[in-house]
Structures are given as structure tokens and as C-alpha cells.
Amino acid sequence: MNTTHSLRVALGARSYPIDIGAGLLDDAPRWLPLLRGRHVLVVSDANVAPHYLARVQAALTRHTHRALVLPAGEQEKTLHRFGEVLAALAHLGASRDATLIALGGGVIGDLSGFAAACWMRGIAFVQMPTTLLAMVDSSVGGKTAVDLASGKNLVGAFHQPVGVLADTNTLVTLPVRELRAGLAEVVKYGALGDAAFFDWLDAHCDALLACDNTTISEAIARSCAHKAAIVARDETEQGERALLNLGHTFGHAIEAEQGYGGLLHGEAVAVGMVLAARCSAALGLAAAGDGERLAALLTRFGLPTAIPPGLAAERLLARMRLDKKAVSGSIRLVLWHGIGQAFIAPDVAEHALLAVLRDT
Ligand code: NAD
Ligand code: GLY
Q: For 55-108, what is each residue's pLDDT tens digit?
């Protein structure tokens, strides 16, 4: 029997539901009540739309609606495409009470969420994530953005969706490499704050890789519960929310050094988490064995755990200094005391980092 998991992000008047389960796109009575007003714009990408767009549009019998299908990929998360979403809203005649539906992965969610934040100073938007990464991370928490030539996510806004609907059946068409990259972000929740969840992932590795619906839905729900709790306590990342960046400062440096054409984001985060664990051990903050357990689980998920060949440690360190999480010459990082015990280290010595970067 398929179970639907329902949880909420508790943000007072801006609280919203997250529903996770098989076949939810076709369960229109569940998500139609989220829509505000008469006008609906559905934004999707060229890989997702052929599979799922018609099913969403078929439910919009009482709305004036249009669809905008953008080319797929991170390189499309631009101000230019953002302008296209705004133009589509204008063409639709969208008023202040229109709703935007983001049907796709994190690129579509971030880009169209930012357009929803800006159109008439903010309209409702519903996240319908179709990648595992978007289901467990980007669709929840209200971070929206586009990239500039000078860096990722440099222009954006906090704008919470009015609901998140994760139909796990959509993962059937997701390329397996993208599924594995999403699993890195799932492991992140265990690694940063929930050792029991880490053990559960270890025990259910094969079912997760096979995309068994019951198991993957539970993994998504447990991940979202972690994210929802952190976002409810620290919506705008004044403190605790930064823990969600475990592995990301290392990972962003790798992605940037590879010109965003190498490892996928989740893959780079996998390597970054291993680097954070090794750095913690090198500084005497954690047992090395915990890092080895993390690397072993990521390897079982088919994820990389070493820096790709050809990337110089000094250049990665320079990228890490530039990362937005670096403050006045010192490097601020998420480290851990072991599995499930991440913390924010405000000032990590660069020579210790360099030694780990040279060695991994
Ligand atoms: P993505 O949106 O590029 O999707 C990955 C690929 O899978 C794309 O080619 C897409 O077309 C395809 N795809 C998506 N769903 C599919 C499906 N069901 N079937 C077949 N193909 C499908 O990438 P992503 O990994 O989902 O998201 C990465 C983006 O998310 C990055 O831009 C990152 O910055 C952002 N992000 C944002 C947050 C946040 O809090 N807002 C958190 C993490 C990541
Ligand atoms: N993905 C990090 C955050 O949402 O804060």
C-alpha cells in the first residue's frame, strides 16, 4: 500500500504543507486548494514537461492558465530566463492573486520561485519537485535565486511556497546519476544531525537505489522533517540553518573549479562532506572512523568521495575563501564531532584545510 507523508513547515501565517507520495500529481483535490485566484502559470523544463505537464494542466479546468517550458539545466538559471517567466506572467494577465506552479528540479524551483517573489512584489507559488534533490532540499525553505556569470545564486530572495507536492512516481524517469546525487543530500541530514537516520539509510541502501516507493518516500519525509524544523527555527539563516551547508563550501569550490561541467552538485557535496569529516578528524574534533563510515555509505550509493584529479589544493582553498560563507580572511565551515553532530566552526586554520585538500 502506498503511504502519503504529510508534514508542515511552521512559519506562523506563512506555514505550508509538504505532501510526499506516489501519484500525487494526479490527486488534484489534494493540491488544487493551494491555488490562489484565477490565474495560474506552470513553469517546467524540456525534460520534465513531456512526462508531467499535461497531467498538471488537466486539473486546471477552473483556472486561466498557461505553461512556460524552459530549456533544462543550471546554465538556464539566469536573469534572462527569469525575465521570460515575468513576461509569461504578464501575457497571462496575472494579478496579485495569481499562482505560479514550479514543476521540475531545483533549477525550475529556484528560478520560478524568484519570479514569484518579484511579480507584483510577491505572488503565491507551489513547488512540485521532480528530482530527489529538489524533493529533499530546494523545494522546502523558500530560498529562491538565479545565477550570474560571476557566481551561483547571487541574486535571489527568501520567498516561501504555499505548498510542496512531491510525487515520488516522477523519480521513475529521473536519470540514475541525478537520483544518486539527490541521495547525497539525504545522507547530509543523517550526517549533520541524526545518527539513527544515518543507520537507517545504511540499512536501506539497496531499496533506496532501486527507488522502492515506500522506502524513498520515508527517506524524503525524514529529510524534509529535518529541513522544515531548521527552517522554522531559522528561516533567514542567521545561525542554525547554515548547518544545511555541510560539505557545501568544499563542494562549491570543486564545482566552480570544474566550471560547473564536472561533478553534479550532490556529487560535489558528497566529496565535500568527506572532506569536512577528514578536516574534523585532523583537528582532533572527531574520530576518523566516523568519516570512514560516511565515505563507505556514500560509496555504496555510487557517489564520489575524493577530489577529482587535476584540481589543485591551493586553487580549491582560494575558491573556499571566496565562498559567501568565508568571513574576513578566516574560513567558516560546517564541521562535525561525528555522525549526527555537525556544528559551525567560525575560524578554521587554512594550513589544516590545505593538508586535507592535498591528501584527499
Ligand atoms: P535540475 O533542476 O537541473 O534537474 C536535474 C536534471 O534532471 C535536469 O536535466 C532536469 O531537466 C532533469 N529532470 C528533473 N526532473 C526529472 C524527472 N522527473 N525525469 C527526468 N528528468 C528530470 O537540478 P536539481 O539537482 O534538481 O537542482 C539543482 C539546483 O537546485 C541548483 O541550481 C541548486 O543551486 C539548487 N538548490 C537550491 C536549494 C534551495 O534551498 N533553494 C537547495 C539545494 C539546491
Ligand atoms: N540548501 C540550504 C538551505 O536551504 O538553507
A: 999 999 999 999 999 999 999 999 999 999 999 999 999 999 999 999 999 999
pLDDT for the residue 1: 57
Between the alpha carbon of residue 117 and those of residues 21, 50, 104, 122, 193, the distances in Å are 27, 27, 18, 4, 31
Judgement on whether residues 164 and 192 belong to the same structural domain of the protein: no
Confidence of residue 255 (pLDDT cuts 50, 70, 90): very high
Q: Is 48 in the pocket of ligand 1 (CB under 6 A)?
A: yes
Q: What is the CATH number of the domain that holds 110?
A: 3.40.50.1970
- Same domain, yes or no, for 138 and 191? no
Ligand nearest to the backbone CA of 178? 1
In this structure, the residue with its CA closest to atom 40 of ligand 1 is 138
Q: Is 267 in the pocket of ligand 2 (CB under 6 A)?
A: no
Return the H-helix or E-strand segment holding 128. strand 124-129
β-strand partners of 156: 145
Q: What is the pTM of this model?
A: 0.97
The larger pLDDT score, comparing residue 326 to residue 178, is at 178
Asked if pLDDT for residue 329 goes beyond 60, the answer is: no
* Nearest-angstrom CA–CA distance, 174 and 307: 25
Regarding whether 273 and 141 lie in a shared domain, the answer is no
Distance 17 CA to ligand 2 centre (A): 18
Residues 263 and 324 in one domain: yes
Rounded to 5°, the CA angle 131-336-330 comes to: 95
Q: Is residue 249 predicted with pLDDT exceeding 60?
A: yes
Distance CA 41, CA 64 (A): 9
Tell me: do 219 and 189 sit in the same domain: yes
